[in-house]
UniProtKB/TrEMBL annotation, chains A, B, C:
It is a multi-pass membrane protein. Pfam families: Gly_transporter (PF03458). Belongs to the UPF0126 family. This is Trimeric intracellular cation channel family protein. The chain crosses the membrane at residues 90-110, 116-137, 149-167, 173-194. PANTHER family: INNER MEMBRANE PROTEIN, UPF0126 INNER MEMBRANE PROTEIN YADS-RELATED. Residues 7-81, 92-165 form the Glycine transporter domain.
Length: 206, 206, 206
């Protein structure tokens, strides 16, 4: 499916850019910035493939993802003071990548006959584990665990794809609808500043 | 072995509660709290299965662990101001989970014909790696590496099970004795405030 | 190849020492220090084997690595105030380990018919992922991502081995030349204080 592959590459580029930017912010050297870009872009899919037992992971089979991540990270390294201008487009590209990664992850889990939670987890993990690794390597609490509707949009999309897959709807339609659900949810979350509830704090609790 | 399965679920619930509490303390949103509960409860066994090459890991084969972790984390999220009352029972449940996880991990490694250190490591990892992931995701130095007798109780139990397995003692007895050893050690450590030695510090060393 | 195995053990010892020292600096107890020594020494090769799908990883097949790491970490724990005297020798041993680990990692990837980036990554990962795990477990931004020429020396060595492997040069020569390249680069980096460029910072960028 060529559309999915193109979207996958676009998402990879957006994720690599976010990783490279995080590296620059933490004052890493060129190697660190490239590494962080690469891990952010490919870490989620790698973890998914490890858990599915599909080794070596996809990135080692099609090195396009590696070359693209390195190229984007290098570009961010060289021109990062102009990346500020790209902040909004990057946010949208990130949403696009999120939707694509979720349906690729959940779709692959369905091919491996995973159950409901397993399939949804694989989608969420494909989309968010790279970002978590980025934050862990920068010694921060993963944004994904604190931020506005991000991982939960992935969750919704993964669950939707699992359910659609039980219906007679053709697979490509199910993929597109689920990816769109994630993207729309995420874009709305950005625009309307949605966030998930936090546990009520009572004084005296540390 | 139904007793072991029940203890396993009890331990899972206790670990999920400790993960969810850590998430609330770090001001995570609902998704983060559920995620941290799930990772704490299932991360150790998942890592063990990855290392043994037994993929997909157990939690993807029996989704009960997932549902239980989510349920417990959600309950902690909703009623966390009352969890304070449960602090002591939770500590005992945690000790119970520790003992159970160690013998499950070391037992599985023995089935895979691992050597002495490998078998002990698998038990320790099953019991403690989930908690380490919890601490890494909360951007803290893992408690397990600093705290009073915790991982070392697991170490003792795993080594005991390995040795008993060389004797003609029936397997269920070996499992029960080793699990009890961990639990008793851990409970004593809590009550008598035992701790392992730290390296002597000399001034001038940073 | 007996020389490679001996160098591998030397490198393992040097890495275990650096892990154990990090544990002592973070005020960990005996278990934590042993654990950190072991993870630093064996974590890179374990991750490589997981990604190659060669499970269980090498350390579980030849427990020598485990025993050596434990022995070295214990020695560092007991005599760490005298380790200061060993700082320079340790730095050289570390460079030796680096070169050895890179060629072992890239060499194994070539046996598994990985592509260019995959093979280089496997070498870099074998040499640096253990140190990254050490830093993550001590809740620090991995040194490798910030420091002077370290991972980039591994990168150069891995790429060199990949290229030499395309020539008719006998495999042992290719291994030795590539390992020496890493070691010489690393030793020069220490002596001449080489470092990779960082992205230029402009004020106003956070």
């Amino acid at each position: 499916m060529n559309l999915l592959y193109s979207l996958d590459l676009l998402g990879t580029a957006a994720f690599a850019a976010s990783g490279a930017l995080a590296g620059i912010r933490r004052d890493m050297d060129l190697f660190g910035v490239l590494m962080l870009g690469m891990v952010t872009a490919t870490g989620g899919g790698t973890l998914r493939d490890l858990l599915l037992g599909d080794t070596p992971p996809f990135i080692f089979k099609d090195e396009t993802y590696f070359y693209l991540s390195i190229f984007v990270s290098l570009a961010v390294f060289l021109f990062h003071h102009r990346v500020g201008l790209l902040q909004l487009p990057l946010l949208y590209l990130d949403a696009l990548g999120l939707g694509t990664f979720v349906v690729i992850g959940t779709g692959k889990a369905l091919d491996f006959h995973m159950g409901f939670i397993g399939s949804v987890m694989m989608g969420v993990m494909t989309a968010t584990a790279g970002g978590m690794m980025r934050d862990i390597l920068s010694s921060q609490v993963p944004l994904v665990l604190q931020k506005e509707v991000y991982a939960s949009a992935c969750l919704a999309g993964g669950a939707l794809l699992y359910l659609l897959h039980l219906t007679p709807l053709p697979a490509p339609w199910a993929l597109i609808i689920s990816a769109l659900a994630v993207i729309v949810l995420r874009v709305c979350a950005i625009h309307f500043n949605w966030s998930l509830p936090k546990a009520p704090r009572n004084s005296g609790h540390n």
